[in-house]
Hints:
Layout: E1 4-8, H1 15-29, E2 33-38, E3 44-46, E4 52-54, H2 56-72, E5 77-81, H3 119-132, H4 136-144
Parallel strand pairs: 1-2, 2-5
Antiparallel strand pairs: 3-4
Helix pairs in contact: 1-2, 2-3
Amino acid sequence: EGRVVIITRYGAGKVDELLSGHIKAVKECGVPVVWQCDAVHGNGVVASNKYKTRKMDDIIKEILEVMAVHKKNGSVLGGIHLEMTGQTSVTECLGGVCGITEEGLTKNYETYCDPRLNYSQAIEAAFKVANEMPSAERAAKRARK
């Protein structure tokens, strides 16, 4: 038996108003699905210097919003889509621990299409998302606080 993959790309701040209804509709139709969050394509912006970019904070915010809505609705987020490169020097997305600013985009902006997270931004995103995933160990630590 196969599954349909539903890829959501709402944009940070829009998830709560849209995703719950979509989850409910899918549950009602009974088709088995895998939910995937594409938090990069819904969060594109054009910087003041006219570079197409994304804000790292918005990408993370959307992923965490999607995880919370799935939990609230008793469904499972089965995957996350990120556009990234293993290069440390790429400067296509704003923010992250490397602190890329709009001015910094010009340093090493290589994409001809979609801005990618660089190596450190991708690792940071992975750790932030992993830290929010269900875990008995994390639940026990939070309970002790």
